[in-house]
Amino acid sequence: MLRILLIVLFTTSFCLAQNYTSTIRGTVRDADTGLPLSGATVTLDKNSDGTSTDENGSFRFQEIAVGRYVLKISYLGYESVVIPEILLESGRENVQEVRLHASGQQLREATVTTNRPGAFNSVQEITIEQTMRYAATYLDPARVATSFPGVAAANDQANGLVIRGNSPNGMQWRLEGVEIVNPNHLSNAGTFSDRATTTGGGVNILSTQLLSNSFFLSGAFPAQYGNALSGILDMNLRKGNDEKTEFVAQVGLIGIDVAAEGPFSKKSKASYVANYRYSFTGLLSSIGIDFGGEANKFQDFSFNVNLPTKKAGTFSIFGLGGISENVFTAERDSTLWEVQKDGRDIIFKNKMGAGGITHNVSLGNRTSWNTVLVASGLTTIRQSYDVKIAANNRVLTDSDELSKVRFSANTYITHRVNDKNRIKAGLYATKQYDNIGLTRYWGGSEQQLTGWLIQPFINWTYKIADNITSELGLHSMISTLKTHILKGNSSTLEPRAAVKWQLNPSQQVSFSYGLHSQLQLPQVYLAQYSTTQFAGNLHLKPTRSHHLVLGYQKNFVKNSSLKLEAYWQQMIDVPVTDGIRNSFSALNVIENEVNRRLENSGTGRNYGIEATYQKLLTDQYYILLSGSLYDATYVGSDGVRRDSRFNGRHTFSFTGGKEFKKGTQSTWGINAKILWVGGFRDTPIDIDASTASNTTVYLQDQAFSVKMKDYFRPDVRIYWKKSKTRYSRTLALDLQNISGTKNEAYSYYDTFKKKVVAQYQLGLIPVLSYRWEF
C-alpha cells in the first residue's frame, strides 16, 4: 500500500512539474520584394540561444515552454524589429511572418509586428491576440479601435465608428487591401430608423480564426488609399499552418465556432484555414427563447487557401459569406403595448459574401508585383407591418431593399530604386452596382445605380538623410455613374505628402497632408424628391477633405511609448439642400432616406489634439491610455455654422490588464476597459407637428443643438487559460457595461404614447465563452 502511495505521489509531482512546450517559428522577408532574408539574427527573450534564418528565410524555436515572449529580428542594412505580446499555447504552433524594411544602415529596434502600410501618422495595428484579450470586443477588430484616441462607437449594438467627429459612413472596410461591401451581420443594429447602414453591423462576418493583423488608419492616408474621409480598417487574412494540422472549437454568446487549418500534404507548403460559425442566440431562438421579443440569428463561413509556387510567386484563394436575420414579433395582446414598436412585426434579413484571388511575385532583387481580384455583394431586406388586433391581420406599412455589388481589381508594383528611393505605383478598378427599393404606404420606387470607379496612384519614398524620410504621393478618383435616365461623371486629383524626422533613437516628429475624396451614399445619388418622376442627384461631385496631421512620438523602455497628434480636417463640396436655405448636410446622414435636391456647396471642419500612452504586454501587464479634445462643425445651405451630429468634444479610454501565472499550467487574466466619451448631438422634436402628422418631426432650424449626456461604460474581462500536453483551453467571462449605465442613444416621438421617448443603449451584458485549441 505504501509503495502504491509513493508511486502516486511521484507521478503527481512529475505531472505538476511538467513543462508544457510548443514551437515558435516563421519566416523573414524583404518588405519590398518579398524575397527571403538568409542569415537574419532572431532572438527570443527567456531563451539564451538565438538563431539565424536559413536560405528560405525560416527560423524555428522548438520545445519552448508555453507563455508570452518577445521576438527580436535584425539584419544588416535593414531596420530591426521587435515583436512583443507573442502568446505561445500548448497544442498550437505560433507562426510569424516578418517583413523588414531596408534602411541602408542598422537602426535601433522599432516595435512593429508586420509590414505596416506606409503611413507616418494616425495608424494603429490591431493584432488578433489583442482582439481576444481586450474586454468587450465581441472578437471584432473594429471594436478594439474604440480604445484609440478620437474613436467612438456610434451605438453599443454595432461596430460603426465615429472617427474624429466624422459620420461612420466616412469609414471604409478593406480586405486584402481592396475595398469591400459592409462585412457585418445585422447591419441595422443600433440605428435610429432600424434600417441598414453601409459601414457597420452587430457582428463582423470574418471570424478571428481567419484574420491576421489589421491596420486602422484615421487620417491623412498614404496614396494607395482612397474613397474614404474619416478612417480605414484594412483587414488581412492569415495563412494556415503549412506543417501541422490544428483545430479550434469555441462557444459563447457570440456563436459556436469550429475552425481547421493545416497543410494539404507533407510534400508541399500549400495550406488552408477555414471556419464555420453559428450564432448562439440563433440556437436559443430555435427553441423559443428570445430577447425582448426579438429573435437574432446568423451564420457564416470563411476560408483562405495559400498556394506558394517555386517560380510563379504565391497565390491565395479566399472567400467569406454570411446570412443573418432579426425578427421582432408584436405582442398580440394590445393591452400590453407600451411603445409604438410593440404593435409592429419587423423582419430584417441580411446576406453578404465575398471571394477573391491574390497573387504576389518577386521580379528580381528590387521589385515585387501584387494583384488582388475580389467580388463582394450585399443584400438587405426590411419589412414592417402594423398589427391589427381587431381584424386579426397585419398591414405592410414600409419595405426597404438594398443591394450592393462590387467587382474590384487592385494591382501595384513596388520598386526599390536604391537605399534612399522607393516607388510604389498601381491601379484600383471597381465596377459597382447599387439598388434601392422603397415601399411606403403612399407608394413605392426602385432605382439602380451602376458605374466604374478608377483609382490610379503613385507613391515615392525618399530618404533625405539618415534620420529624415519623406513621402510624396498622388491619388486620383475617376467615377462614371448612371441610372436608366441619368448620368454623372467626376474626377479628382489628390496630392499626398509626409515627412518623418527621427530626432534620436527614441523620439520622432512627423507631419502628413492629404487631400481625400469620397463618393456620396447611394441614397444621396438616388434621392426621390419629385412625386411625378425620378429626379436623382447624379450631378453631385465627391465630397473632398484637406487633412493635416502633426505628430510626436517618444519610445520608452519595456515596449512603452507616448504619442501626441494634432490634426485639422477641412471638408468641401459637401452636399447640402439646393434652392432652399436650411440646416441639412450629408455629413450627418447615416441610414436615413434623402428626399431632396442637393448641391456641392456645404463645408465641414474638424480639428483636435490626441494623446496615447501604451505599454504592451510585458512583465505580465499592459496599459493603453488615450484621450482627445476635438471640435466638429458644419455649414448647411443657410450659411450657419453648427455642431455636427457627432461633435462630442472629447474621448477618453483606459484599457489595461494583468496576468497571473499559476505554475506551468494555468494563467489567470483580468482586463478592464473604461470609456468616457462626450455625448453626441440630437435635434429638438416639434411635439405639436409630430402629433398632427403622427410621426417624428424635428425643428430643423435648431439642428443638433441638444447635447446628450456623456457616454460612460466600464467593461471587465476575466479569463483562465489551462495548458495540457496536446491542447489548451480558455474560459472567459466578459461583463460589458458592468455599471449598468443608461447611455442615451436618441429620442423620438412615440405614436402610441403620444410623447417624446428617449432610447438608451445596452445595459449590463454578461458574455461567457469557452475556447479549445488543439
TrEMBL record:
<keyword id="KW-0732">Signal</keyword>
<feature type="signal peptide">
    <location>
        <begin position="1"/>
        <end position="17"/>
    </location>
</feature>
<dbReference type="InterPro" id="IPR008969">
    <property type="entry name" value="CarboxyPept-like_regulatory"/>
</dbReference>
<protein>
    <submittedName>
        <fullName>TonB-dependent receptor</fullName>
    </submittedName>
</protein>
<dbReference type="Pfam" id="PF13620">
    <property type="entry name" value="CarboxypepD_reg"/>
</dbReference>
<dbReference type="InterPro" id="IPR039426">
    <property type="entry name" value="TonB-dep_rcpt-like"/>
</dbReference>
<dbReference type="GO" id="GO:0015344">
    <property type="term" value="F:siderophore uptake transmembrane transporter activity"/>
</dbReference>
<dbReference type="GO" id="GO:0009279">
    <property type="term" value="C:cell outer membrane"/>
</dbReference>
<keyword id="KW-0675">Receptor</keyword>
<dbReference type="GO" id="GO:0044718">
    <property type="term" value="P:siderophore transmembrane transport"/>
</dbReference>
